[in-house]
Design goal:
Number of helices: 10
Strand content: 15-25%
Strand order of the largest sheet: 5-4-3-6-7-8
CATH architecture of the largest domain: 3-Layer(aba) Sandwich
Number of domains: 2
CATH topology of the largest domain: Rossmann fold
Helix content: 40-55%
Radius of gyration: 18 Å
Largest sheet: 6 strands, parallel
């Protein structure tokens, strides 16, 4: 982890509604932002539940739950599925088995089938803000750190944060540790929880749509145009940067 220095590096970003704003801290989601992993992770969920003997209808119910908010952690989703939806009497053991199987499937996907998005890494590297750039994901934190080390990109980030701690908890802690106001934070994400986290703490949210599974983003972000900038690709995001390292 890179210690947070005193340099007042600013990222000047052209927002949709508030003009050019200076940001002192960057937060990125992982799946659908740094890795094009959303569809593969949905497949991993299906494979995991199939291995546990779930029926096609049950798996479809889980996938519907998953896609309703892809940014929610697997811990929450498996718990809700086995305890609240299936009301499985062996829910605790099923949850643990699902977590183990899903973790194994994800690690294989990240290491064998996925590479970091070039646009994401170019943006992070060109921002010259590695000491002020964080990953906050719904993925398992231990797993994420191993993946980032495997792909040799961990040094580009101050900290890589994941589940079971929530995104709001992570970001609240980062704001407290850095003493940077929420309005000087740019959160780049692709999911509803990313947006809700930004809104809850008062950060500006940049929605990256090209890899997103969030189907209801228009309706669910309606009325919040003052805090949202929508971009289709990483090139669109990079094109909004004005004077890096001012």
């Amino acid at each position: 982890m890179v210690p947070l220095g005193m340099a007042q590096t600013l990222l000047r970003f052209q927002t949709t509604s508030k003009g050019i704003l200076p940001f002192k801290l960057l937060v990125l989601d992982c799946d659908g932002v740094i890795f094009n992993s959303n569809q593969l992770k949905t497949q991993a969920y299906r494979s995991t539940l199939s291995d546990l003997g779930c029926s096609t209808d049950e798996i479809d119910q889980f996938v519907y739950l998953h896609l309703s908010d892809v940014s929610v952690s697997r811990f929450v989703k498996f718990t809700q599925f086995f305890k609240d939806i299936l009301k499985d009497p062996n829910s605790d053991s099923k949850i643990q088995a699902a977590l183990t199987g899903y973790s194994d499937n994800c690690m294989r996907l990240y290491k064998e089938e996925l590479t970091p998005e070039v646009g994401a890494m170019t943006f992070v590297e060109n921002s010259l803000m590695s000491e002020r750039t964080y990953v906050i994901s719904g993925g398992a934190q231990v797993e994420l750190n191993e993946v980032f080390q495997h792909h040799d990109i961990a040094h580009n980030f101050n900290r890589i944060c994941g589940s079971p701690t929530t995104k709001v908890e992570h970001l609240s802690g980062i704001l407290k540790d850095t003493d940077i106001p929420a309005e000087e934070v740019l959160f780049i994400g692709d999911g509803w929880t990313d947006f809700k986290t930004s809104k809850a703490l008062g950060c500006h949210f940049c929605f990256l749509s090209i890899m997103s599974d969030w189907k209801d983003h228009v309706e669910q972000m309606a009325g919040n145009e003052d805090m949202v900038t929508r971009c289709q690709t990483w090139d669109d995001i990079s094109g909004r940067i004005v004077n890096l390292n001012c």
